[in-house]
Amino acid sequence: SATISLSGLAVGSLTGIIILFPLFLLVAVCIKIEARKDPIIFSQLRVGKNGKCFKIYKFRSMVRDAEEKLTELLHRNDVKGHMFKMKKDPRITKVGKFIRKTSIDELPQLINILIGQMSFVGPRPPLPREVKEYTEYERQRLLIIPGCTGLWQISGRSNLDFNHMLELDLKYINNRTIWFDIKIIVKTIFVLFNSKDAY
Fold first, then answer.
1. How far apart are CA 114 and CA 118, in angstroms?
2. pTM of the entire structure?
């Protein structure tokens, strides 16, 4: 199926960075006001196409030692399967709560798109520790470049467990077209204005 080319993705992401630059600055200032010593951008190792690892970029929405505190919280996971989601995660900052609800924290991933590591639409890139537990069937999520949004985000987001997300990802992988991508992107914009399913 036809999808947006890498050059098209680069142009789109660069345009997005330029247009959203004032918002980037505003978020950066808010993060620094709340936690002056903490970095503005958070990077984390994720698994992309064909199992290749890369660093994903986000606006920092959690306390600096969030990764260290995760082991203490794993038993409080609110979703089933190979991923961690928690409705009232104590690691999230005040600014972080807002930017996560609206998905503003994901905007730095335009940089990942610009350098060819991600696409606008596709399966969300998992953590290496999650992929270690994947079956061969589940590894099909890694057949294409991961995306910033997808069927999972417009179908319930954090209210869906891993198995539901997997089936939606495979449905997308098997049916992807440029028009399908555009439809998902448009629906994502509407979902952002009704962000009750995000946490």
1. 8
2. 0.84
